[in-house]
Input
Amino acid sequence: MKSDLFLSRIAEISVYVFFACFPFSRALIEISSITAIVAWLLAKIIRREWPRVFADRTLIFLALFFVLSLASVFISQYSGQSIRGIVRAARQILFFLAVWDLFSEKKKLAGFMTVSFVLFLAMMFDGFYQMGAGKDLFRGWPVGYVSTNLRITGPFGDHGFWGAYLAVWGLLGLGFLFVRNSVTGREKIFLGLMTTLSFFFIFHTQARTVWVSFAAGLAFLALVRGRKWVLLCLAVAAVVGVLVLPRNMIIHEDAEKKEQSLVERFVLWDRAINVVKARPWLGTGINTYVKSYHEFDKEKSWRVQNYYAHNSYLQLAAERGLPALVFFLLFVGSFFVRAFRVLRSSEEPDLRAFLTGWSSGLVVFLVFSLADTCWESLQMGMFFWFFLGLGASALTITSKGRTLPT
Output
């Protein structure tokens, strides 16, 4: 095997390793993502080939986003923190570009999707193991409780990240189920099982942010596919949930009998808004929010000190400035526009299925980021850019006149 082909294969395998291990191993996230990036770049150098994804015009938004993020390093009061932050941002973007380029062929993307659904099912098996044994199989994370209600965290050890992962990949599977003739009968049974388990574990996260994010993604999928009955089911489920579920599952009270999560989030968001107002152009410096917000916090609340903003948009703006946030949203939004165009024009059921599920999963990320920390986390930040890369791969396949098989 030629050295460039060997390196490309190493890069692809590293992406598989990343997906298999990112829920439970931060070390393997680092190793697999860096290996994929280095092997991909070396293969391009050996071939003396300019990465084809660099020709995409929407990358100008990404480039401006990164340049502004880099500029924030130079005004940071905590240079060490910001240097680590920009290195992390560079790795995320390079990993995104590597995934985009590596899986822009129909056989490679189709093969990955098949394996990913099997691995996803294995992670849900770990959820069952945690329910029965009281701890997760991979890292020994203990099962949690909200008051007396069981909370499953899966291999993540974090109920929010576990729930977002379930919602994103579960909707990707639903995309294939909702598009007629995209899968065989046997595949529908497998995907139906996977989706049912996703619903089950999403409920047992006891995370209302996850519930709302998943409902938003499912509603988006229903609108794209014209399935009004799904919207009706969501409305009925919301009403029944409020009437039937225990109050301590709907309202999470603190020691003052106040709704703890909402009260704390309002405090956190107010702090972040104060920072954005004071430093709107370049922020306080990437990766410095937790250290920097004290200087701009007007209320000085005793609640949740030294904590993330619990809103990725506000934290991004606080650390890197409003222009950086605008370019980031323009970049992500461009993929929605392109996906809509393909969904309107393509007659290939497998392609429509993938992009329907993928765009719905992207909605989950965007809604989840409104009330939780997503892009700042090593696990979910890398998962977001990886997921974006898969969607970009599918769109590249369509631009070449190819179809995406299941």
The chain has a mean pLDDT of 93.
